[in-house]
Amino acid sequence: MSKRILIIGAGTGGTLTANRLRRRYGDRAQITVIDADDRHLYQPGLLFVPFALADPDDIVRSRAKQLRKGINFHIGEVDRVDIEAEEVLLKDGSRFVYDVLVVASGSSLLPEETEGLPEALSQGSAFGFYTLDEAVALREKLKGFDSGHLVMNMVEMPIKCPVAPLEFCFLADWFLHERGVRSEVEITYVTPLDGAFTKPVASRELGDLLKSKDIRLETEFATGQVDGDAGKLISWDEREIPFDLLVSIPVHGGADFVSRSEGLGDELGFVMTDPHTLQSAVAPNIFAIGDATNLPASKAGSATHFEGDTLTANIERFFDGEEPEGTYDGHANCFIETGFHKALLIDFNYEVEPLPGRYPFARVGLPLLRESRLNHMAKLAFQPFYWHALLPGRDVPGIGAQMSMDGKQPTPSNQGESE
Questions:
Q1: Share of the chain above pLDDT 70, in %
Q2: CB contact set of 133 (below 8 Å; sequence gap of 6+)
Q3: Does 3-106+255-319 match 111-252 in CATH topology?
Q4: Residues 356 and 368: beta-carbon distance below 8 Å
Q5: pLDDT digits (tens, 9 = 90+) for 298-310
Q6: For the chain, what are the domain ranges?
Q7: Backbone angles phi, psi at 305, to 5 degrees
Q8: Three-point CA angle 201, 203, 204, nearest 5°
């Protein structure tokens, strides 16, 4: 009897996992992927849409067409996972049994968790860019925004792509300069963190970059309410920040079905997952990947890509009756658009924060923690790499899943620091 592998979610994690497992097992495994629709969104492209740097039609493709031949794709909404019976129940009454389950359902936006935010979004005083419709609406708004106070607010961590709010501020600075109205617009980045980023060295670098671009940084701001009518953000300690245009990144949580599946998720609905093996805490034949997990790693496509190596190897070990190996080290890297056709690159893991140097090699690589046009060009080149290498689950020569210190310049003050 062939192995029954069921994957919930046909985003980055689910797709690359399905494709890798299909290459590994061929017809010796029955691989089924479930998702609610057939629209695969290239999420990094959402950042570019508000600034007319990306066409919405170019960042959406069919989910089914990203899956290798022989993988079953089913459209439907998951109701819950029956862990004891080893089956997934859909809202239409369908049931799918599994020998191994992979939860790759991503994360969800929860604006309703912040008082006043849904109303501000609906009335047009607040906008987002984490969905395609929101990004398109914000593009139209920015076309006519010539003066006032633009506020970028991240309500709470974790979020998808933690550097995206910073990138938005940098691109807004560039965009308003291009339109000749930057001097008429004040930009403020409001964050619950104690700095511009979670990692100390990168936080200092990015904080200095914000300052150099005259972007105000408001830290340790615990957003309690959005008053769209009055145009102000209000924190739990009653600090107020006025705005004429609010761009909000709301609270994130896991998929609804995770909370309905007893023992699967934490209080936010993220799957409780071993940070090194990708095995779930609730059952040895359930694994999770990407934004759906509660890992202390970045919810970013690069992290998901690197997680895929560990995940697929441990699924194979499970079928072989072996213990999983904890080979995932939290590795992630991120390009940070800084405007004016430049970008930064950071590379880090659970234990080592972003360091200066070059990636992936000392002699041949992109500059780390430094603005460059080369990094900007590499970020633009990532989109075809995503469709043609990352999603198909191909190995990339020279870029390993574990973080390498080759090319990096560690100092005594930043070795071994963790998130």
A1: 98
A2: none
A3: yes
A4: yes
A5: 999 999 999 999 9
A6: 3-106+255-319, 111-252, 333-419
A7: -60, -50
A8: 70
Please report, as a single letter, which amino acid is at residue 386. Y
Q: Considering the chain, what is the average pLDDT of its residues?
A: 95
pLDDT at site 363? 84
> What token pair was written down for 150?
């633009």
State which amino acid sits at residue 93.
G
Confidence band for 416, pLDDT divided at 50, 70 and 90: very low
**Which helix (H) or strand (E) is 352 found in, with range?**
none
What is the β-pairing status of strands 29-35 and 72-75? parallel
Q: Which CATH architecture has domain 111-252?
A: 3-Layer(bba) Sandwich (3.50)
**Strand ranges across the sheet with 232-235:** 223-227, 232-235, 240-242
Beta strand residue intervals within 76-167, DSSP E: 78-82, 87-90, 95-97, 100-103, 107-109, 126-127, 148-154
What distance lies between CA 159 and its chain's CA centroid?
Answer: 7
Burial of 401 (0-12, 13-18, 19+ CB in 10 A): middle
CATH number, domain 3-106+255-319, options 2.60.120.260, 3.40.50.300, 3.30.465.10, 3.50.50.60? 3.50.50.60
- Cα angle 288, 289, 295; round to 5: 90
Rounded distance between C-alpha atoms, residue 64 and residue 104, angstroms:
15
- Indicate the pLDDT class of residue 417, thresholds 50, 70 and 90: very low
| Residue given tokens 């001097």 in the structure block | 183
Residue 154 identity (one-letter amino acid): M
Residues in Cβ contact with 93 at an 8 Å cutoff, skipping those fewer than 6 apart: none
pLDDT band at 411 (very low <50, low <70, confident <90, very high): low
**Token digits for 47?**
């950042």
Helix (H, G, I), strand (E, B) or coil at 304: helix
Q: What is the rounded CA–CA span in Å between residue 273 and residue 142?
A: 40
